[in-house]
Amino acid sequence: MSLDLVIRNGTVVTATNSFAADVGVRDGVIVEIADRIDDPAASQVDATFQLLLPGGVDVHTHMDSLSFGMQSADDYRTGTIAAACGGTTTIVDFAHQQPGQGMLETIEAWHGRAEGKAAIDYGFHAIVADPTDAAITELSQLPALGVTSFKVFLAYKDGPMVDDAQFIRILATARDAGAQVMVHAENGEMADYLQRQHVAAGKLAPKFHASSRPPRIEAEATARAIALAEVIGTPLYIVHVSCEESLEEVIRGRERGVDVVAETCTHYLYTSGEDLERPDFEAAKYVFTPPPRDRRNHQVLWDALARGDLEIVSSDHSAWSFATQKSRGRDNFTRIPNGAPGIEERMTMVWQGVNDEHITPNQFVALTATNPARRFGLYPRKGTIAIGSDADIVVWNPAAERAIRQESLHHGVDYTVYEGEWVEGGPRTVILRGEVIVDDGDFTGAPGAGRFIHRAAVERQTAVS
Q: Is 439 found in the same domain as 322?
């Protein structure tokens, strides 16, 4: 039986090895990897002098989300087109429960947001923002629907923040259902106290976002979340670790044998507190949570990624228009929608860590594709180049050079926090299930071609006695 597609003369890079090979695809699946594949009937992609990487897997995105009663600048159409152009072929997005809404209703609503718009494959995490008895009960039904991760906020008092009693119930429910819990770890009470102190003192500029959420309150909540998950016996995932103080708590938990995995996000490797000093309200572009830290933490985080103490780099893509949405907080930083774009820039910016010898090409693949696919029930269908895996492949040109410019990006927001960054290496061709969806930087796929991925459950852990 002939192949549908052959990618020729590339160097396959996986999380564990690199080798020259042709890759053959049939019915959207990789069916052959060999030194040479001869099939004249198949479509051909020439990858001479190029790397063949598994399509990126971004497990921390916020598409079509709400904040301060506003809709984010990227829906599933623009956001997933941007992801594709950056080399990401699968996302796991947050389905955010609204007040009074059930968890099943939340997942149904997010299916409606994605259907007919998603240009790449996708799954959902469930954010528990209104943990009523009924909502927590419904969580146990989500793994059967392919939603095997639940997120809680220990931050944002008077918003989605859960207290410890609610958090413990969610941990226990997830454990029994074969799911894992994701945590936004900041002490919400202290952040609220510091914000109120700042506002009372007239400290309203964007730079005070950082001092209202110092590293220690992130570390405290990280330690608390790990300790509670340890006692309950629930797999835990710490989102967006930004600083050494929080990282230290992750390492301590792992040394005790807790099943805790932590990520950082691209912007914590490049932005810093200095960006919150930018004039003319430009600093608002860098109001995300946790806030950017001092530059010393860049090397701390790169070292943790190289060691494996941090296992994943996500984008935390949360896009709010600078001109029309971030501006609502011009006179009070607490009213600035938190978040920054980055889904298209993620893989290219992490690749700069290869150029700078922070990580190897194999570690790059692990951090951006394989590890997130493994942790979130997508592997080996996603996250690797192997026989039987989906043919999600990025033809990566390590010699490409350019400056990142807003006008060249595909997202729906009006800025990038990486404006002007000179980068080497990036995606040339992006293939989703055997179909070319990006060719030489141009999106050639179809909105709505993305499929919902039913994710596997995680292994149940044993509680501490």
A: no
Nearest to 197 by CA among 214, 185, 184: 214
Q: Which amino acid is at 313?
A: V
**Torsions phi, psi for 45 (to 5 deg):** -125, 120
Task: Let me know whether 143 and 259 are in one domain.
Answer: yes
Tens digit of each residue's pLDDT (9 = 90 or more) over 137-186: 999 999 999 999 999 999 999 999 999 999 999 999 999 999 999 999 99
Q: Tokens 């179909």 appear where? A: 435
Q: Answer whether residue 255 is part of any domain.
A: yes
Reported as type and span, the H/E element at residue 362 is helix 361-365
User: Within its chain, how far is the Cα of 264 from the centroid?
Assistant: 9
Listing DSSP states for 157-224 in one string gives TTTTB--HHHHHHHHHHHHHHT-EEEEE-S-HHHHHHHHHHHHHTT--STTHHHHTS-HHHHHHHHHH
What is the torsional sign of CA 267, 59, 264, 193?
positive
Residues contacting 277, CB < 8 A, separation 6+: 207, 283
User: Side by side, which strands form the sheet with 260-265?
Assistant: 56-61, 88-96, 121-127, 149-153, 180-184, 236-238, 260-265, 312-314
Residue 363 inside a domain? The answer is yes
Tokens of 228: 């509670």
CATH number at residue 30: 2.30.40.10
Residue 328 lies in a domain: yes
What is the residue range of 348's domain?
56-375
Asked whether the beta carbons of 122 and 115 are under 8 A apart, the reply is no
Do 107 and 251 share a domain, yes or no? yes
Examine the domain organization and report whether 288 and 263 are in the same domain. yes
pLDDT tens across 56-90, in order?
Answer: 999 999 999 888 788 999 999 999 999 999 999 99
